[in-house]
């Protein structure tokens, strides 16, 4: 990012994307290794998940009427697979976020960048991201509770033919999915960056993210919505062609399409992580919160066990680590 800090606030969405895409050119080897070791396994797992669960679901349906004991066995396998899949997804998602945000910040402060230094910083960064993730999870649980409650109301409205209740349920469900889900995702992504680059994490990071989003909520919503739509399209094509397309497409076509879609998702996830890093600086600039590059440089060095001055600042405030 060669722009002056005060210029970042004026970036449009296309310009934010252009800035994000240009970042890997500054350290191609580092981003190549991050993509290969962290983002590729994450993207592959997201798409391949249905490839492995679909046969188990088919077997459960086949055995449900004829062999209850075998059905229980298949359910056990499915639940175990789901458990380990979620652990893997959660771990690599946080690891990818930590690696990209730390590397982008290092480049921003002209700090020497290498894959080894990034990996050395990840353990401390991961702890902070994990606490923030737990707070976001609580928010998502509350969101899901409300969402399910209105789904139940929708079913009741259909059953009782209550037009007013039906209309209310549909409107609320639509708003919850389109508005609340997108906003919470944007809040989470920005809070993740805050957790890495500032001295706050957890609920405090979410609160800081909420403040930073003010005035840039529309930009954040558009970026998140486009990201989710692209992921949904990639997942839908993968499901129809690779997972369920055995009767229509040959093995070679399914392998080629599957490989292409995994590659596409890798690029989308990498760009998404880069965008959320750039967007943090855009929000900071918009709120006229100056970023002291020297203090940020020292803050990043703290993750590597380097000496950190007792009094420095990322936002012209006292930094306490």
Automatic annotation (TrEMBL):
Transmembrane domains' residue ranges: 31-52, 83-108, 129-158, 164-197, 218-243, 255-283
Keyword Thylakoid: no
Keywords: Membrane, Transmembrane, Transmembrane helix
Region forming the signal peptide: none
UniProt keyword annotation of DNA-binding present: no
Domain of life per record: Eukaryota
PANTHER family linked to this entry: OS01G0800300 PROTEIN (PTHR33133:SF24), OS08G0107100 PROTEIN-RELATED (PTHR33133)
Protein name per its UniProtKB record: Polyadenylate-binding protein 1-B-binding protein
Protein's organism: Juglans regia (English walnut)
């Amino acid at each position: 990012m060669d722009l002056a800090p005060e210029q970042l606030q004026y970036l449009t969405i296309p310009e934010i994307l252009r800035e994000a895409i240009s970042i890997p050119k500054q350290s191609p080897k580092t981003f190549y290794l991050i993509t290969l070791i962290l983002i590729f396994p994450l993207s592959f797992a997201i798409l391949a998940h249905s490839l492995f669960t679909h046969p188990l679901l088919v077997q459960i349906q086949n055995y449900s009427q004829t062999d209850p004991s075998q059905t229980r066995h298949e359910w056990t396998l499915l639940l175990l697979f789901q458990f380990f899949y979620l652990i893997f997804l959660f771990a690599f998602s946080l690891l990818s976020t930590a690696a990209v945000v730390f590397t982008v910040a290092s480049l921003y402060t002209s700090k020497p960048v290498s894959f080894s230094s990034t990996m050395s910083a990840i353990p401390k960064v991961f702890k902070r991201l994990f606490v923030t993730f737990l707070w976001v999870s609580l928010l998502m649980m509350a969101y899901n509770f409300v969402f399910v409650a209105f789904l139940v109301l929708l079913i009741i409205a259909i059953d009782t033919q209550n037009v007013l209740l039906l209309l209310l349920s549909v409107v609320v469900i639509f708003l919850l999915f389109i508005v609340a889900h997108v906003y919470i995702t944007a809040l989470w992504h920005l809070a993740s960056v805050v957790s890495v680059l500032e001295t706050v994490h957890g609920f405090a990071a979410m609160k800081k993210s909420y403040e930073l989003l003010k005035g840039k909520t529309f930009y954040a919503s558009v970026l998140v919505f486009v990201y989710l739509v692209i992921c949904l399209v990639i997942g839908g094509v993968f499901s129809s062609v690779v997972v369920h397309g055995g009767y229509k497409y040959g093995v070679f076509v399914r392998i080629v399409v599957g490989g292409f879609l995994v590659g596409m998702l890798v690029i989308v996830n990498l760009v998404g992580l880069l965008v959320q890093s750039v967007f943090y600086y855009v929000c900071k600039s918009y709120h006229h919160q100056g970023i002291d590059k020297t203090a940020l440089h020292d803050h990043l060095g703290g993750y590597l066990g380097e000496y950190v001055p007792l009094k420095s600042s990322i936002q012209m405030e006292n930094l306490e680590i």
